[in-house]
Amino acid sequence: xxxxxxxxxxxxxxxxxxxxxxxxxxxxxxxxxxxxxxxxxxxxxxxxxxxxxxxxxxxxxxxxxxxxxxxxxxxxxxxxxxxxxxxxxxxxxxxxxxxxxxxxxxxxxxxxxxxxxxxxxxxxxxxxxxxxxxxxxxxxxxxxxxxxxxxxxxxxxxxxxxxxxxxxxxxxxxxxxxxxxxxxxxxxxxxxxxxxxxxxxxxxxxxxxxxxxxxxxxxxxxxxxxxxxxxxxxxxxxxxxxxxxxxxxxxxxxxxxxxxxxxxxxxxxxxxxxxxxxxxxxxxxxxxxxxxxxxxxxxxxxxxxxxxxxxxxxxxxxxxxxxxxxxxxxxxxxxxxxxxxxxxxxxxxxxxxxxxxxxxxxxxxxxxxxxxxxxxxxxxxxxxxxxxxxxxxxxxxxxxxxxxxxxxxxxxxxxxxxxxxxxxxxxxxxxxxxxxxxxxxxxxxxxxxxxxxxxxxxxxxxxxxxxxxxxxxxxxxxxxxxxxxxxxxxxxxxxxxxxxxxxxxxxxxx
Length: 510
What we know:
- This protein is mainly alpha-helical.
- It has one domain.
- It contains 19 helices and no strands.
- α4 packs antiparallel against α6 (130-156), α11 crosses α15 (347-372) and α12 runs parallel beside α15 (347-372).
């Protein structure tokens, strides 16, 4: 239990410079920007090519299996990444985890193909064919489990550029394939699932072959029982909240499909796909922050821990706030321009999803701080509370009021706003830090005010102009206004925290 106890004797978690962290984070951001431009183009082609009805099916199946993977994982992936970040591990360790990963595709595939009766299949997956359900399972597993494991292995070795460029290459290839299918009138849901399986499985094999040579020889003390004990100790407290959160997410998806239909599923899927671009940026650098948080914790470097936490949350909040402040006022025109008038009703959903991203984005680092420092029991209590609180809200908004995608996105916003503040307060309180809510409130309010001013002003001055012209001019005006305000925030808060540098508030109690 050395890795979990905080004993740093013999640890390979060596400290790195702030420049190293910044460079790797910047690499993730640049690579993420490139690949999400590809993903944006892919989403446009798929949404337009399939239409709301078939796109709703595509989104429903992928989202549903994402919840299933979380249930089967039971927090093991978080334990795996934290443990390999803290110290070198043996080939036996990786082999055992690989067997666990394999079980996550074999068991559900066997259940769907051999065990589940057709009546259950129709109820759970709303009448979708068994073969399509199996394809969706394999596609989701390749993308969300297999490839994410490869990313964790590379990030633990600080090979950020390698894995980020690889992911961007996959997205570029995917864009080319999807475009070719669309131009050939071959774009279908089953074929899309097949393409995803092939791309991510092939990329994972390449990464696995390239990285396995760097695994250490099995140490004498690392037996099967000791490895299992580490995983159970770390992941045990996460089991209940993980199960409840995943079930709640699937119930949300199922209720939206049941009471809203495929089109509402499509509106929700397309809105969150684009609104969560900032959150995806945060997820792309979360492994960088997680690695350094875990390393600082195992060294007992509390000052460094706070620096990474403060700067990480600020960077992600500013990123998401900048995007939200502008597009929340142009939500419906943006959706129509991207995917066509058939998705116009997704505009309000897009606005709520953008506001949700402001909280969810910086929450990426908040969650990493709990898990990287081993505070899994407290995190499990919070996760359970959030899942339990969300269930009655879903029933009221989706089943009772039948608000569809708008209701589900409103629920997500409420939970994010309340619980991210609670999570942040708790981690700051535990470590004797001051919360950063004054910074978030000031910056977030300024972004929204600047966006509202430019929207109203450009809408009045260019009332007769085309929508793309209005959005372009408004974007330029918004950028100038935010840049001017940025000088004030640098003056007001710059002395407290610079990018991955020294923080004058380190060690100060709240």
